[in-house]
Amino acid sequence: MEETAGLADPISIRPYKEYQARYQSWEPVGELKIESKADIARIRRELDTCFAAHLSCWSKVRLPVLLAVSEAVTNVVKYTPGGRLLVYADTAGLSFHVIDYGTGLDLDVLPSLLFGKGFSTSSSLGMGFPIMDKYADAVTAYTSGRGTILVLQFDIDC
After folding, report:
1. Which domain holds residue 21?
2. Residue 68 sits in a domain of what CATH number?
3. Mean pLDDT of all residues in 47-75
4. What is the number of structural domains in the chain?
5. 85, 31 Cβ separation under 8 angstroms
């Protein structure tokens, strides 16, 4: 079940059970709680500090990574009761799993437009998903009635 938003690099939408099957054996290098608006800036600072110390090319990839992750974390704060961010790093790059505890995405409502520029389920500008799509090498949304997990992947070769 893959839907695309008609963007240059489409965002994949997958059922939650596929997330469990694919990532259940992965071990994160970091985990951060997402509970309030203050967490957006805190998470940006913590990621920046950590990767500046451990990733030689961080200054080259810093802004796109932090912007995309901030957009995903902002959505958790704005639209759900909270969540967490799991951080993974390996030789292929960085992967950020933004998990929310909301009600999931309603894929019966405009699934092909859900992540398009200007689409919003509220009164926002609807630019979060297009920004994530622009800067991440891959974005996959895993959703169910228990919430949504956005996986933002960045291919980083330092």
Report:
1. 12-155
2. 3.30.565.10
3. 96
4. 1
5. yes
Contact 48, 62 (CB under 8 A): yes
Q: Which of 21-35, 83-97, 101-115, 140-154 has the lowest mean pLDDT?
A: 101-115
- The four Cα atoms 119, 122, 123, 127 give a dihedral, to 10 degrees, of -40
Residue 2 forms part of a structural domain: no
Domain contains 23: yes
- For position 135, what pLDDT does the model report? 94
Whole-structure pTM value: 0.83
| 22-43 pLDDT per residue, tens | 999 999 999 999 999 999 999 9
pLDDT tens profile 65-90: 999 999 999 999 999 999 999 999 98
Q: Where are the alpha helices (DSSP H) in the chain?
A: 16-23, 38-54, 58-79, 128-135
Element (H, E) at 81: none
Contacts of 34 (CB under 8 A, 6+ apart): 43, 73, 76, 77, 82, 83, 84, 85, 98, 100
Q: Does a structural domain hold residue 137? A: yes
4 in any annotated domain: no
